[in-house]
Amino acid sequence: MFERFTEGARAVVTGAVGHAERTGADTVTEEHLLLGLLDRRGTRAAFAFAALGIEDRRDSVVRALADARRRGGLSQADARALAGIGIDLGEIVARVEREHGEGALRSGRRRGRPWTGHRPFAPEAKAVLVDALRIARGRGDRQIGDGHLLLALVSRPGVVAEVLADHGATYTTVERAMYGAASGAADGDRGDGGTDSGLAEAG
């Protein structure tokens, strides 16, 4: 499937792997893919981030993701569901951290020495890549660009989509920012620095 990725999309994936390595994570996750997207400049996804004001609020996005890691990867929706049955997730996190130290519930990170071996993609991250292919096909595009990766992230339930939605990035707002109300991908995925010239025009 990676042969169908544009140069820009491949750079996002490479950046995601880099984020996983730097944080000592066992796997490459949806969060790492988002960080890889946020690192890029001059891309279609970067244009959407700028248009939606997320580029200027990157620190807020990163803090929200860190808060979710402290909750063991549970989303705010999960916290509300637990509250509905009388379980205070915030109190549980506080209690565990009092006993075992801050960040004790964080998952996906090895303790001790950093791991420098190959990192596989978590199932959820793999699903994002597959969804990006599905979205590209649905738009009539022959290649998968960074914009398709972003649309895949905001279309899947979970912490990353929730954090992005809290910052104004839903599937609808992202699609509108990248493609306009009705223009589709008529100009190709030029957001990848011109590397998407092979994209088919989609109405």
TrEMBL record:
Gene3D superfamilies: Clp, N-terminal domain (1.10.1780.10). Residues 2-184 form the Clp R domain. The keyword Lipid metabolism does not apply. Residues 183-203 are annotated as: Disordered. SUPFAM superfamilies: Double Clp-N motif. Signal peptide: none annotated. InterPro entries: Clp_N_dom_sf (IPR036628), Clp_R_N (IPR004176). This is Peptidase. Pfam families: Clp_N (PF02861). Keywords: Repeat. It comes from Streptomyces paludis.
